[in-house]
Amino acid sequence: MSGFNKVVNSYQEAMAGLSDDMTVIAGGFGLCGIPEGLIAEIRHKQTKGLTVVSNNCGVDNFGLGLLLIDKQIKKMVSSYVGENALFEKQLLSGELEVELTPQGTLAEKMRAGGAGIPAFYTATGYGTPVGEGKEVREFNGRKYIMEEAIQGDFAIVKAWKADTFGNLVYRKTARNFNPMAATAGKITVVEVEEIVQPGELDPDAIHTPGIYVDRLIKGSFEKVIEQRTVRQA
To answer: What is the pTM (predicted TM-score) of this model?
Structure first.
């Protein structure tokens, strides 16, 4: 990388500096919009003791589920367990610490972390196990719990297209948690399907400004379908 150019040429360079016991925020929803190449590099590095913040933990043998195989994840902060049998096994055996967070609250925790807001109040989860032990305040006759923002040592993100300055465009539902995750990492690494030159992206089409992006790599993707449902002929 030099100057404003965020492009790196290898996954090793993209994830340089990741070490044991760090917090990683990952974009994606199910298997849609997940940074699969960056996840595979974390597995290759055999980094251990990670706290991973993501909507869910992939599936068996794909996505973040790969990091469960060798027990690289110590704690998972997510809103959905999903179709991952190994996740369930490690959760029930106590090998994996899991903090379940309502989906909208999780998104806001990332957004607040990126905006420099240390905490916020939400009515979601009040009076349930989600709210246990959290500060409660009343506004206009309604009870709210305080949720703290989340920041990661690394954020790993998948986008559709970027310019070399790191300005990002996401494609349809693959946007999901990626824009919030991109803002919440001390180091934000993005993999994309296509990289173009500055000025080739319509400014009005940019979803994440390059100021949030530290490293950018062009990847190739498998396009795995989590649940394939077909209609009988």
So the answer is: 0.93
